[in-house]
Amino acid sequence: MFEALADPVRRDLLERLAGAPARVVDLAADYPISRPAISKHLRILTDAGLVCAEPHGRERHYRLAPAGLTPLHDYLDTLRPPRPPIPEHAFDSLDLEVRRTTRERQATTSTHTDKEQTA
């Protein structure tokens, strides 16, 4: 798969196909290379599982195969450092809010109880 992604034309084809499926003729119109050369690039991308071709009459429409990118995502995930656990100071504002709410409820409850006793 990485060999398929190594070529800038193939990477560009993937970006184009990520937007919408396209025919070889439409893809070739965007490049200064021949239609057979674009077909070869598409075959390499298809063999890598990154693109799939769907027959529509006499034409083949190529589209991105998102599942083919899973190995790449998995590999890149191994390179990312693990996310740290939530730091203790992140809970400070939550603790403050819980204490404030508790005080307000206690004050409301004691005011309500005082009114009942005087009535």
From TrEMBL:
Keyword Transcription: yes
Domain of life: Bacteria
Keyword terms: DNA-binding, Transcription, Transcription regulation
Keyword Transmembrane helix set for record: no
Signal peptide extent: none
UniProt feature, compositional bias: Basic and acidic residues: 89-119
Disordered, as annotated region: 78-119
Residues in HTH arsR-type domain copies: 1-84
A molecular function GO annotation: DNA binding
Gene3D superfamilies recorded: Winged helix-like DNA-binding domain superfamily/Winged helix DNA-binding domain
InterPro entries cross-referenced by the UniProt entry: ArsR-like_HTH (IPR011991), HTH_ArsR_DNA-bd_dom (IPR001845), HTH_MetalResp_TranReg (IPR051081), WH-like_DNA-bd_sf (IPR036388), WH_DNA-bd_sf (IPR036390)
Official protein name in the record: ArsR family transcriptional regulator
The organism of origin for this protein: Nocardia fluminea
Species lineage: Bacteria, Bacillati, Actinomycetota, Actinomycetes, Mycobacteriales
